[in-house]
Amino acid sequence: MTKMKVQVPKLILLGFTATLVNGAVDCTFSAVSDIMPQGLSLSFAQHIPENGTFTVPKNDTGWPTDPINLPELCAIGVMVPGETSNSTFGFGLFLPKNWNQRTLTVGNGGLAGGVNWQDMGTGVKYGHALFSTDTGHNGTSTDATWAYQNPQSQTNWGWRALHETVVYGKNITEAFYNSKPAFNYYQGCSTGGRQGFMEAQRFPDDFDGVIAGAPAWWTVKIPVSMFDTIGKEVLRQCDGQDGLVDTIIMDPYGCNFNPETLLCAENVTDTTTCLTASQLGTLDTITRDYIGGNSTMVFPHWLLGSEHFWDMNIDGGSPNVIGVGYIQYFLGLGADWDWRNLDEAVVQLSEQLNAGQADASDYDISPFINAGKKFIHYHGLSDGGIATGASFYMYGHINRAVSPQGINLHDSYRFFPIPGMGHCTDTADYVNAPYYIAGISMTNNGQYSVPGYHDAEHDVLYALMNWVENGTAPDYIIGTAFSNFTTQDSITRQRPICPYPQQASLDDHAANMDSNFSR
Ligand SMILES: *[C@@H]1O[C@H](CO)[C@@H](O)[C@H](O)[C@H]1NC(C)=O
Ligand SMILES: *[C@@H]1O[C@H](CO)[C@@H](O)[C@H](O)[C@H]1NC(C)=O
Ligand SMILES: *[C@@H]1O[C@H](CO)[C@@H](O)[C@H](O)[C@H]1NC(C)=O
Ligand SMILES: *[C@@H]1O[C@H](CO)[C@@H](O)[C@H](O)[C@H]1NC(C)=O
Ligand SMILES: *[C@@H]1O[C@H](CO)[C@@H](O)[C@H](O)[C@H]1NC(C)=O
Ligand SMILES: *[C@@H]1O[C@H](CO)[C@@H](O)[C@H](O)[C@H]1NC(C)=O
Ligand SMILES: *[C@@H]1O[C@H](CO)[C@@H](O)[C@H](O)[C@H]1NC(C)=O
Ligand SMILES: *[C@@H]1O[C@H](CO)[C@@H](O)[C@H](O)[C@H]1NC(C)=O
Ligand SMILES: *[C@@H]1O[C@H](CO)[C@@H](O)[C@H](O)[C@H]1NC(C)=O
Ligand SMILES: [Ca+2]
């Protein structure tokens, strides 16, 4: 464990070295049409005034919320026709009037089809030009039916639509401002995290820096069904084991947890507050890695402290519909396939098909690293959706792939496990973890960055920019908790989040930081 002193942060406003550039092209349909690359068709070009709202097109169902409080910008919708209607995809751009000469591509979530207008609305407040793809279909996060016997759409969702969106997006941006983007960035979480790894693995030229959160990268693996919440008992046992009773489990792997304390006493009739012996067996299954035939890892376990969020994986007693839909429609087993029939053969079929080539398990990212690019990876230690163990597994395998090539991984890629954070955002109210590190995807509509702390110490996007553009690596990112995370009105806690394998030192410093922020 590395000790680290962290000053109580001061308000630092980030001074940008890039000059602001104004659009060289009017935001009219005909002017924007003229700068479209060959073969693309413009759906709309719409001028949004300062502090305006963008109205999401009606059938664009992936992110239907209208982003508000926007800076003045040009909103653009583009269709990329494919050889068949199944291979067609669309993408959106927000090109701000005052442009900082950077681009930011945002990722998608779950199985959703649609332009992520919501995260674009957050990202454009930083001054970047924003891109997002619809991944080739319109649909909600849990709907997989579009994928059935539709390999073109699977490939679009797997990797193609995002990559081509970036290539076209840079082209359109340069023509719009008559100036080439100086730096290109990416951020996404969950499916968006998978997309970030995929890009770094396959298309190292696309971005100078990537932020990938809670990557659902292991698409060929299958989440198993979940059970009840026992989080408070885990917290009771594990909280103090990291050296500080503060409702936060800093090191779930370091906790020696005894589940037997949850066992129902003899003859107990109310089993809502305890677990039966067979329920304890289920708990063991959940908190252990899923090892398949021939001792292969099928999927890592959920960590201690994630119990509050396990309900992400139960849906009326059956497993998460995303996982089930994936098997039914991506693997082609059809709507009649029942999750109770999950067996080794399904796991093997999944490995073999690698539907849409979406599996981001090419661990050798040396071309990305050798080109001087930077990668920030984060994952909530309390994630009940994508097991955090998958990120530790990913880190370990990337390290094993690049270290023998003489690469010091820490110089280019850092993994920040975030204590107490659920899937991409959120904390249990009995934990109140300072997890918020801004960027896109954990920020509410109309907001951006950390109020009062628009800087590289507190905001992961600024941290990445500082790393890429100044060579200043993030040794920590300070997470923030608010009394109400929705309104972000008052800060209750701030804590450094350290890159793995370091951990913030747990002397009385953390407690001091808490008291400094109880205002
Ligand atoms: C954009 O792509 C078109 C081809 O479709 C090409 O002619 C043009 O030069 C490109 N523009 C930029 C700025 O890259
Ligand atoms: C921005 O618009 C909102 C309504 O969406 C309004 O309440 C607010 O006062 C406006 N802010 C500024 C600075 O004009
Ligand atoms: C929206 O979807 C409906 C039903 O699929 C279709 O009839 C309509 O033409 C679509 N509208 C647009 C603007 O694409
Ligand atoms: C999704 O819906 C939007 C809005 O109606 C439409 O413009 C777009 O073509 C659709 N995307 C796909 C891939 O069908
Ligand atoms: C296109 O997708 C539909 C399902 O949305 C599927 O039935 C059809 O076979 C696909 N066509 C091709 C050529 O893959
Ligand atoms: C549990 O129930 C059994 C059978 O009714 C009884 O013999 C036993 O004494 C009970 N144990 C306790 C601890 O109440
Ligand atoms: C184990 O490996 C053997 C040899 O590669 C293979 O034939 C078999 O299908 C594997 N079994 C499982 C359950 O993965
Ligand atoms: C680079 O460093 C300078 C000097 O500290 C700072 O003003 C600037 O904001 C940094 N750039 C980025 C992108 O963080
Ligand atoms: C936080 O604020 C939102 C919006 O005002 C409100 O709906 C919500 O109930 C508040 N949450 C708590 C825990 O107070
Ligand atoms: Ca603790």
UniProtKB/TrEMBL annotation:
EC class of the enzyme, as a word: hydrolase
Superkingdom of origin organism: Eukaryota
Name by which UniProt lists this protein: Carboxylic ester hydrolase
One GO term of the biological process aspect: antibiotic biosynthetic process
Signal peptide: 1-23
Documented EC number(s): 3.1.1.-
A matching Pfam family: Tannase
A GO molecular function held by the record: metal ion binding
Protein family (similarity comment): Belongs to the tannase family.
Keyword Lipid metabolism listed: no
UniProt keywords, alphabetically: Calcium, Disulfide bond, Hydrolase, Metal-binding, Serine esterase, Signal
Entry keyword annotation includes Amino-acid biosynthesis: no
Alphabetical list of SUPFAM superfamilies matching this protein: alpha/beta-Hydrolases (SSF53474)
InterPro entries reported in the protein's UniProt record: AB_hydrolase_fold (IPR029058), Tannase/feruloyl_esterase (IPR011118)
